[in-house]
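Q: Make up one entry.
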Amino acid sequence: MATPEHSYNLLVDEANNQLKGQTKAVMPENALMKHEDRKDFAQVQDSDELPDRPPPCGMSSTKCILSDEVTPKTEGWAMEWHKHQMAAISSETFDSLLKTSPEYSGCRSNMATFVITRKVLDAKGRPCERYQLVALGTGNSSSGEWLRFNGRMVHDCHAIVIARRALLRFLYKQLLLFFDADPKAKEMCIFESSADSHQLQLKSNIRLHLYANSPPAMNTWTPMKLHCHAKSLLLPVAYLDPSIWAARVCCMSASDKLCLWTVAGVQGALLSHFLQPLYITSMVIGNQTNSDGEVCDISKKQLDDSLLELLPPPFKKQDILFLHCNYVDLTDEALRHSHLSINWCLGDKDIEVLDGTTGFIVEGSPSLSGPGSSSRLCKRALYSYFFQVAQQKYLLKLPTYYSVKVVASVYQTVKDLVKQQFLNNHEGPWNSKNLVDCFSTG
Protein backbone atom coordinates (compact mmCIF):
# COMPACT_ATOMS: atom_id res chain seq x y z
CA MET A 1 0.00 0.00 0.00
CA ALA A 2 1.21 3.50 -0.72
CA THR A 3 2.32 5.67 2.16
CA PRO A 4 -0.28 7.99 3.75
CA GLU A 5 1.55 10.97 2.23
CA HIS A 6 1.38 9.43 -1.25
CA SER A 7 -2.31 8.57 -0.79
CA TYR A 8 -2.98 12.12 0.34
CA ASN A 9 -1.29 13.63 -2.72
CA LEU A 10 -3.24 11.35 -5.04
CA LEU A 11 -6.51 12.21 -3.34
CA VAL A 12 -5.82 15.95 -3.44
CA ASP A 13 -4.91 15.79 -7.12
CA GLU A 14 -8.09 13.90 -7.88
CA ALA A 15 -10.25 16.24 -5.78
CA ASN A 16 -8.88 19.15 -7.75
CA ASN A 17 -9.46 17.25 -10.99
CA GLN A 18 -13.17 17.23 -10.10
CA LEU A 19 -13.19 21.00 -10.18
CA LYS A 20 -11.87 21.03 -13.74
CA GLY A 21 -13.83 18.04 -15.01
CA GLN A 22 -17.02 18.16 -17.02
CA THR A 23 -20.33 16.75 -15.87
CA LYS A 24 -19.98 13.45 -17.73
CA ALA A 25 -16.41 13.45 -19.01
CA VAL A 26 -13.64 11.22 -17.72
CA MET A 27 -11.26 13.41 -15.73
CA PRO A 28 -8.03 14.37 -17.49
CA GLU A 29 -4.66 14.00 -15.83
CA ASN A 30 -3.51 17.35 -14.46
CA ALA A 31 -1.53 18.84 -11.62
CA LEU A 32 -2.99 20.68 -8.66
CA MET A 33 -5.39 23.31 -9.87
CA LYS A 34 -4.54 26.93 -9.46
CA HIS A 35 -7.06 28.88 -7.42
CA GLU A 36 -7.91 31.17 -10.33
CA ASP A 37 -8.75 28.13 -12.49
CA ARG A 38 -11.64 27.27 -10.18
CA LYS A 39 -13.52 30.51 -10.86
CA ASP A 40 -15.09 29.22 -14.05
CA PHE A 41 -16.20 25.89 -12.62
CA ALA A 42 -19.77 26.93 -11.83
CA GLN A 43 -20.29 28.03 -15.42
CA VAL A 44 -18.67 24.84 -16.75
CA GLN A 45 -20.74 22.65 -14.45
CA ASP A 46 -24.05 24.19 -15.53
CA SER A 47 -23.29 24.56 -19.23
CA ASP A 48 -22.20 21.01 -20.02
CA GLU A 49 -24.43 19.17 -22.45
CA LEU A 50 -25.05 15.46 -22.20
CA PRO A 51 -23.78 13.59 -25.26
CA ASP A 52 -26.30 13.59 -28.11
CA ARG A 53 -28.27 10.37 -28.30
CA PRO A 54 -31.68 9.32 -29.62
CA PRO A 55 -34.23 10.37 -27.00
CA PRO A 56 -35.72 7.39 -25.11
CA CYS A 57 -39.26 6.29 -25.84
CA GLY A 58 -39.79 8.94 -28.53
CA MET A 59 -39.35 11.80 -26.08
CA SER A 60 -38.06 15.25 -26.90
CA SER A 61 -34.30 15.64 -27.00
CA THR A 62 -34.44 17.99 -24.00
CA LYS A 63 -31.43 17.25 -21.79
CA CYS A 64 -33.07 17.79 -18.41
CA ILE A 65 -36.18 16.69 -16.57
CA LEU A 66 -38.48 19.69 -16.53
CA SER A 67 -40.53 20.07 -13.36
CA ASP A 68 -42.72 23.15 -13.92
CA GLU A 69 -45.86 21.12 -13.36
CA VAL A 70 -46.43 18.22 -11.01
CA THR A 71 -49.13 15.97 -12.41
CA PRO A 72 -49.42 12.19 -12.64
CA LYS A 73 -48.63 12.42 -16.35
CA THR A 74 -45.48 14.47 -15.95
CA GLU A 75 -44.35 12.38 -12.97
CA GLY A 76 -44.59 9.22 -15.07
CA TRP A 77 -42.75 10.92 -17.92
CA ALA A 78 -40.04 12.00 -15.51
CA MET A 79 -39.61 8.47 -14.16
CA GLU A 80 -39.33 7.06 -17.69
CA TRP A 81 -36.68 9.66 -18.51
CA HIS A 82 -34.84 9.06 -15.25
CA LYS A 83 -34.39 5.31 -15.64
CA HIS A 84 -33.25 5.58 -19.25
CA GLN A 85 -30.92 8.44 -18.35
CA MET A 86 -29.38 6.37 -15.54
CA ALA A 87 -28.77 3.44 -17.91
CA ALA A 88 -27.39 5.66 -20.65
CA ILE A 89 -24.97 7.66 -18.49
CA SER A 90 -23.70 4.42 -16.93
CA SER A 91 -23.09 2.73 -20.26
CA GLU A 92 -21.50 5.79 -21.84
CA THR A 93 -19.17 6.35 -18.90
CA PHE A 94 -18.09 2.71 -18.95
CA ASP A 95 -17.39 2.91 -22.69
CA SER A 96 -15.38 6.11 -22.22
CA LEU A 97 -13.31 4.61 -19.40
CA LEU A 98 -12.61 1.41 -21.35
CA LYS A 99 -11.43 3.12 -24.55
CA THR A 100 -7.81 2.67 -23.52
CA SER A 101 -8.36 -0.77 -21.96
CA PRO A 102 -10.78 -2.60 -24.28
CA GLU A 103 -9.55 -5.97 -23.06
CA TYR A 104 -11.70 -5.49 -19.93
CA SER A 105 -14.91 -4.59 -21.78
CA GLY A 106 -16.51 -7.91 -20.80
CA CYS A 107 -16.67 -6.71 -17.19
CA ARG A 108 -19.78 -4.65 -18.01
CA SER A 109 -22.03 -7.70 -17.60
CA ASN A 110 -22.24 -6.94 -13.87
CA MET A 111 -22.01 -3.17 -13.45
CA ALA A 112 -23.28 -0.71 -10.87
CA THR A 113 -22.94 3.05 -10.63
CA PHE A 114 -23.78 5.87 -8.27
CA VAL A 115 -25.16 9.02 -9.85
CA ILE A 116 -25.97 12.36 -8.24
CA THR A 117 -28.64 14.67 -9.60
CA ARG A 118 -28.67 18.41 -9.05
CA LYS A 119 -31.68 20.67 -9.34
CA VAL A 120 -30.56 23.55 -11.55
CA LEU A 121 -32.07 26.05 -13.98
CA ASP A 122 -31.73 25.56 -17.71
CA ALA A 123 -30.92 28.31 -20.22
CA LYS A 124 -34.55 29.47 -20.14
CA GLY A 125 -34.69 29.60 -16.37
CA ARG A 126 -36.76 26.44 -15.98
CA PRO A 127 -36.00 23.96 -13.16
CA CYS A 128 -34.43 20.70 -14.30
CA GLU A 129 -32.23 17.85 -13.08
CA ARG A 130 -28.58 17.48 -14.09
CA TYR A 131 -26.98 14.02 -13.87
CA GLN A 132 -23.39 13.27 -12.89
CA LEU A 133 -21.94 9.78 -12.50
CA VAL A 134 -19.55 9.79 -9.54
CA ALA A 135 -18.69 6.12 -8.89
CA LEU A 136 -18.61 2.89 -10.89
CA GLY A 137 -17.97 -0.73 -10.00
CA THR A 138 -18.17 -4.07 -11.76
CA GLY A 139 -17.83 -7.64 -10.57
CA ASN A 140 -19.64 -10.78 -9.54
CA SER A 141 -17.35 -12.56 -7.11
CA SER A 142 -15.85 -12.48 -3.65
CA SER A 143 -12.60 -13.77 -2.28
CA GLY A 144 -12.44 -17.35 -1.11
CA GLU A 145 -9.12 -16.83 0.66
CA TRP A 146 -8.21 -17.12 4.30
CA LEU A 147 -8.84 -13.98 6.32
CA ARG A 148 -6.08 -11.38 6.38
CA PHE A 149 -5.69 -8.88 9.17
CA ASN A 150 -3.77 -6.00 7.58
CA GLY A 151 -6.64 -4.31 5.72
CA ARG A 152 -5.11 -4.82 2.27
CA MET A 153 -7.57 -7.33 0.79
CA VAL A 154 -10.90 -6.32 -0.78
CA HIS A 155 -13.18 -9.11 0.39
CA ASP A 156 -16.29 -8.45 -1.70
CA CYS A 157 -16.04 -7.63 -5.42
CA HIS A 158 -19.72 -7.68 -6.37
CA ALA A 159 -20.68 -4.70 -8.51
CA ILE A 160 -22.92 -2.83 -6.04
CA VAL A 161 -20.41 -3.26 -3.22
CA ILE A 162 -17.47 -2.08 -5.33
CA ALA A 163 -19.48 0.90 -6.62
CA ARG A 164 -20.27 1.83 -3.04
CA ARG A 165 -16.58 1.64 -2.04
CA ALA A 166 -15.73 3.84 -5.03
CA LEU A 167 -18.42 6.23 -3.78
CA LEU A 168 -16.68 6.39 -0.38
CA ARG A 169 -13.48 7.41 -2.15
CA PHE A 170 -15.41 10.13 -3.99
CA LEU A 171 -16.88 11.37 -0.68
CA TYR A 172 -13.39 11.77 0.81
CA LYS A 173 -12.45 13.88 -2.20
CA GLN A 174 -15.51 16.01 -1.61
CA LEU A 175 -14.50 16.53 2.02
CA LEU A 176 -11.08 17.74 0.86
CA LEU A 177 -12.89 20.30 -1.29
CA PHE A 178 -15.06 21.40 1.63
CA PHE A 179 -12.04 21.94 3.89
CA ASP A 180 -10.03 23.69 1.17
CA ALA A 181 -9.04 27.29 1.92
CA ASP A 182 -10.49 28.46 -1.40
CA PRO A 183 -14.20 29.36 -0.94
CA LYS A 184 -14.87 28.33 -4.55
CA ALA A 185 -13.88 24.75 -3.69
CA LYS A 186 -16.37 24.67 -0.81
CA GLU A 187 -19.04 26.15 -3.07
CA MET A 188 -18.62 23.33 -5.56
CA CYS A 189 -18.64 20.60 -2.87
CA ILE A 190 -21.81 18.50 -2.65
CA PHE A 191 -21.89 19.02 1.14
CA GLU A 192 -22.79 21.98 3.31
CA SER A 193 -22.76 22.78 7.02
CA SER A 194 -25.79 21.86 9.10
CA ALA A 195 -27.38 24.27 11.55
CA ASP A 196 -28.17 21.56 14.11
CA SER A 197 -25.16 19.24 13.83
CA HIS A 198 -21.37 19.31 13.56
CA GLN A 199 -21.72 16.84 10.69
CA LEU A 200 -22.03 18.02 7.12
CA GLN A 201 -25.16 17.32 5.13
CA LEU A 202 -25.89 16.80 1.46
CA LYS A 203 -26.97 20.03 -0.19
CA SER A 204 -30.73 20.27 -0.52
CA ASN A 205 -30.70 20.31 -4.34
CA ILE A 206 -28.70 17.06 -4.62
CA ARG A 207 -29.94 13.45 -4.60
CA LEU A 208 -28.06 10.13 -4.78
CA HIS A 209 -29.18 7.31 -7.09
CA LEU A 210 -27.98 3.76 -7.75
CA TYR A 211 -27.98 1.90 -11.07
CA ALA A 212 -27.30 -1.81 -11.57
CA ASN A 213 -27.55 -3.51 -14.95
CA SER A 214 -28.47 -6.75 -13.20
CA PRO A 215 -30.15 -7.36 -9.83
CA PRO A 216 -27.98 -8.38 -6.87
CA ALA A 217 -27.59 -12.11 -6.35
CA MET A 218 -30.33 -13.62 -4.21
CA ASN A 219 -31.23 -17.06 -2.91
CA THR A 220 -34.79 -17.55 -4.11
CA TRP A 221 -35.57 -20.52 -1.89
CA THR A 222 -34.92 -18.58 1.32
CA PRO A 223 -35.53 -14.97 0.19
CA MET A 224 -36.35 -13.49 3.58
CA LYS A 225 -33.22 -14.74 5.31
CA LEU A 226 -29.85 -13.04 5.56
CA HIS A 227 -27.31 -14.54 3.15
CA CYS A 228 -23.58 -14.47 2.69
CA HIS A 229 -21.10 -15.41 -0.01
CA ALA A 230 -18.77 -18.15 1.22
CA LYS A 231 -16.58 -20.51 -0.80
CA SER A 232 -18.29 -19.45 -4.07
CA LEU A 233 -21.77 -20.16 -2.70
CA LEU A 234 -24.61 -17.90 -1.56
CA LEU A 235 -25.91 -19.42 1.66
CA PRO A 236 -28.23 -18.42 4.51
CA VAL A 237 -25.98 -17.25 7.32
CA ALA A 238 -27.75 -19.54 9.78
CA TYR A 239 -26.53 -22.56 7.78
CA LEU A 240 -22.88 -21.57 7.81
CA ASP A 241 -20.46 -23.32 10.13
CA PRO A 242 -18.97 -20.82 12.66
CA SER A 243 -15.49 -22.17 11.92
CA ILE A 244 -15.81 -20.89 8.35
CA TRP A 245 -16.87 -17.43 9.57
CA ALA A 246 -13.84 -17.35 11.83
CA ALA A 247 -11.24 -18.29 9.23
CA ARG A 248 -12.50 -17.71 5.69
CA VAL A 249 -13.68 -14.62 3.85
CA CYS A 250 -17.48 -14.52 4.10
CA CYS A 251 -19.42 -11.52 2.78
CA MET A 252 -22.99 -10.52 3.47
CA SER A 253 -25.03 -10.42 0.25
CA ALA A 254 -25.43 -7.16 -1.68
CA SER A 255 -29.22 -7.25 -1.21
CA ASP A 256 -28.76 -7.49 2.57
CA LYS A 257 -26.25 -4.64 2.53
CA LEU A 258 -28.73 -2.61 0.49
CA CYS A 259 -31.31 -3.25 3.19
CA LEU A 260 -28.89 -2.02 5.88
CA TRP A 261 -28.12 1.14 3.87
CA THR A 262 -31.82 2.12 3.87
CA VAL A 263 -31.41 2.85 7.58
CA ALA A 264 -27.72 3.37 8.35
CA GLY A 265 -26.87 5.15 5.07
CA VAL A 266 -24.13 4.35 2.56
CA GLN A 267 -21.41 6.46 4.21
CA GLY A 268 -20.31 3.83 6.73
CA ALA A 269 -18.76 4.28 10.17
CA LEU A 270 -15.62 6.29 9.35
CA LEU A 271 -17.37 8.93 7.27
CA SER A 272 -20.10 9.20 9.92
CA HIS A 273 -17.60 11.23 11.93
CA PHE A 274 -17.99 13.98 9.32
CA LEU A 275 -21.27 13.34 7.50
CA GLN A 276 -24.92 12.89 8.30
CA PRO A 277 -26.40 9.66 6.89
CA LEU A 278 -26.43 9.60 3.11
CA TYR A 279 -29.36 7.74 1.59
CA ILE A 280 -30.12 6.33 -1.85
CA THR A 281 -33.21 7.99 -3.38
CA SER A 282 -33.81 5.57 -6.26
CA MET A 283 -32.40 2.39 -7.72
CA VAL A 284 -32.70 1.56 -11.40
CA ILE A 285 -32.26 -2.12 -12.27
CA GLY A 286 -31.46 -2.64 -15.93
CA ASN A 287 -32.73 -6.18 -16.23
CA GLN A 288 -36.35 -7.17 -15.75
CA THR A 289 -36.42 -10.51 -13.97
CA ASN A 290 -38.48 -11.93 -11.15
CA SER A 291 -35.71 -11.13 -8.66
CA ASP A 292 -36.12 -7.39 -9.37
CA GLY A 293 -39.35 -7.36 -7.41
CA GLU A 294 -37.83 -9.51 -4.69
CA VAL A 295 -35.02 -6.97 -4.16
CA CYS A 296 -37.66 -4.28 -3.72
CA ASP A 297 -39.73 -6.41 -1.35
CA ILE A 298 -36.79 -7.40 0.83
CA SER A 299 -35.49 -3.86 1.22
CA LYS A 300 -38.93 -2.75 2.39
CA LYS A 301 -40.14 -5.75 4.38
CA GLN A 302 -37.06 -6.99 6.22
CA LEU A 303 -37.08 -3.86 8.39
CA ASP A 304 -40.54 -2.84 9.55
CA ASP A 305 -41.70 0.54 10.84
CA SER A 306 -41.29 -0.45 14.50
CA LEU A 307 -37.66 0.47 14.04
CA LEU A 308 -38.49 4.13 13.37
CA GLU A 309 -39.22 5.17 16.94
CA LEU A 310 -35.85 3.77 18.09
CA LEU A 311 -33.68 5.61 15.56
CA PRO A 312 -31.71 8.63 16.81
CA PRO A 313 -31.98 11.64 14.50
CA PRO A 314 -31.05 12.30 11.76
CA PHE A 315 -31.24 8.58 10.94
CA LYS A 316 -34.44 7.31 9.36
CA LYS A 317 -35.79 4.46 7.26
CA GLN A 318 -35.42 5.48 3.62
CA ASP A 319 -37.72 3.69 1.19
CA ILE A 320 -35.83 3.42 -2.08
CA LEU A 321 -37.81 4.03 -5.26
CA PHE A 322 -37.17 0.98 -7.46
CA LEU A 323 -37.43 1.37 -11.23
CA HIS A 324 -36.87 -1.25 -13.91
CA CYS A 325 -35.35 -0.66 -17.31
CA ASN A 326 -34.92 -2.97 -20.29
CA TYR A 327 -31.57 -1.40 -21.12
CA VAL A 328 -28.95 -4.10 -20.57
CA ASP A 329 -25.59 -4.18 -22.30
CA LEU A 330 -24.04 -7.65 -22.05
CA THR A 331 -21.16 -9.06 -24.08
CA ASP A 332 -19.96 -12.47 -25.16
CA GLU A 333 -16.78 -11.92 -23.13
CA ALA A 334 -18.66 -11.85 -19.82
CA LEU A 335 -17.70 -15.38 -18.76
CA ARG A 336 -14.01 -14.78 -19.50
CA HIS A 337 -14.04 -11.73 -17.21
CA SER A 338 -16.37 -13.07 -14.53
CA HIS A 339 -13.60 -13.02 -11.88
CA LEU A 340 -12.48 -9.46 -12.63
CA SER A 341 -13.72 -6.27 -10.96
CA ILE A 342 -13.30 -2.68 -12.16
CA ASN A 343 -13.56 0.42 -9.98
CA TRP A 344 -13.45 4.16 -10.70
CA CYS A 345 -14.72 7.36 -9.16
CA LEU A 346 -14.92 10.94 -10.40
CA GLY A 347 -11.44 12.44 -10.48
CA ASP A 348 -9.58 9.15 -10.99
CA LYS A 349 -7.24 9.13 -13.98
CA ASP A 350 -7.66 5.42 -14.76
CA ILE A 351 -9.75 2.42 -13.87
CA GLU A 352 -8.36 -0.11 -11.40
CA VAL A 353 -8.86 -3.82 -12.08
CA LEU A 354 -9.02 -6.41 -9.30
CA ASP A 355 -9.14 -10.17 -9.25
CA GLY A 356 -12.33 -10.71 -7.28
CA THR A 357 -11.25 -14.18 -6.16
CA THR A 358 -8.15 -12.83 -4.39
CA GLY A 359 -9.12 -9.21 -3.61
CA PHE A 360 -5.94 -7.72 -5.12
CA ILE A 361 -5.02 -5.77 -8.25
CA VAL A 362 -4.33 -7.83 -11.37
CA GLU A 363 -1.14 -7.51 -13.36
CA GLY A 364 -1.67 -4.99 -16.14
CA SER A 365 -4.29 -2.91 -14.32
CA PRO A 366 -4.23 0.65 -15.73
CA SER A 367 -4.06 2.04 -12.19
CA LEU A 368 -1.60 0.70 -9.63
CA SER A 369 -1.93 2.37 -6.22
CA GLY A 370 1.21 1.05 -4.58
CA PRO A 371 3.36 -1.97 -3.71
CA GLY A 372 1.78 -5.26 -2.79
CA SER A 373 -1.05 -4.99 -5.36
CA SER A 374 -3.45 -3.65 -2.72
CA SER A 375 -6.43 -1.72 -4.04
CA ARG A 376 -7.23 1.96 -3.56
CA LEU A 377 -10.56 0.68 -2.22
CA CYS A 378 -9.19 -1.64 0.47
CA LYS A 379 -9.83 -0.78 4.11
CA ARG A 380 -6.25 0.32 4.66
CA ALA A 381 -6.48 2.82 1.78
CA LEU A 382 -9.79 4.23 3.07
CA TYR A 383 -8.21 4.51 6.52
CA SER A 384 -5.38 6.63 5.09
CA TYR A 385 -7.94 8.91 3.41
CA PHE A 386 -9.73 9.26 6.73
CA PHE A 387 -6.57 10.58 8.39
CA GLN A 388 -6.13 13.25 5.73
CA VAL A 389 -9.63 14.58 6.41
CA ALA A 390 -9.83 14.14 10.21
CA GLN A 391 -9.17 17.36 12.11
CA GLN A 392 -10.21 16.30 15.60
CA LYS A 393 -7.13 15.38 17.62
CA TYR A 394 -8.85 12.59 19.51
CA LEU A 395 -9.58 10.78 16.22
CA LEU A 396 -5.97 11.05 15.13
CA LYS A 397 -4.82 9.43 18.39
CA LEU A 398 -6.98 6.33 18.05
CA PRO A 399 -4.74 3.30 17.47
CA THR A 400 -6.63 1.15 14.94
CA TYR A 401 -9.18 1.17 12.14
CA TYR A 402 -11.53 -0.74 14.43
CA SER A 403 -11.26 1.84 17.22
CA VAL A 404 -12.17 4.64 14.80
CA LYS A 405 -15.26 2.69 13.76
CA VAL A 406 -16.33 2.01 17.32
CA VAL A 407 -16.25 5.65 18.44
CA ALA A 408 -18.78 6.50 15.71
CA SER A 409 -21.22 5.64 18.48
CA VAL A 410 -24.49 6.88 16.97
CA TYR A 411 -23.85 5.06 13.71
CA GLN A 412 -22.93 1.87 15.60
CA THR A 413 -26.12 2.16 17.66
CA VAL A 414 -28.20 2.34 14.50
CA LYS A 415 -26.39 -0.59 12.93
CA ASP A 416 -26.92 -2.64 16.10
CA LEU A 417 -30.64 -1.81 16.01
CA VAL A 418 -30.85 -3.10 12.45
CA LYS A 419 -28.98 -6.28 13.34
CA GLN A 420 -31.29 -6.86 16.31
CA GLN A 421 -34.39 -6.51 14.15
CA PHE A 422 -32.97 -9.08 11.74
CA LEU A 423 -32.68 -11.44 14.70
CA ASN A 424 -36.15 -10.58 15.99
CA ASN A 425 -37.56 -11.39 12.55
CA HIS A 426 -35.72 -14.75 12.54
CA GLU A 427 -33.70 -13.75 9.48
CA GLY A 428 -30.35 -14.69 10.96
CA PRO A 429 -27.33 -13.00 12.54
CA TRP A 430 -25.34 -10.25 10.84
CA ASN A 431 -21.84 -11.48 11.54
CA SER A 432 -19.01 -8.96 11.81
CA LYS A 433 -15.30 -9.78 11.80
CA ASN A 434 -13.92 -7.27 14.27
CA LEU A 435 -10.45 -8.84 14.28
CA VAL A 436 -10.06 -8.06 10.55
CA ASP A 437 -10.40 -4.35 11.43
CA CYS A 438 -7.74 -4.33 14.16
CA PHE A 439 -4.93 -2.93 12.04
CA SER A 440 -3.09 0.38 12.27
CA THR A 441 -1.36 2.64 9.75
CA GLY A 442 2.07 1.71 11.10
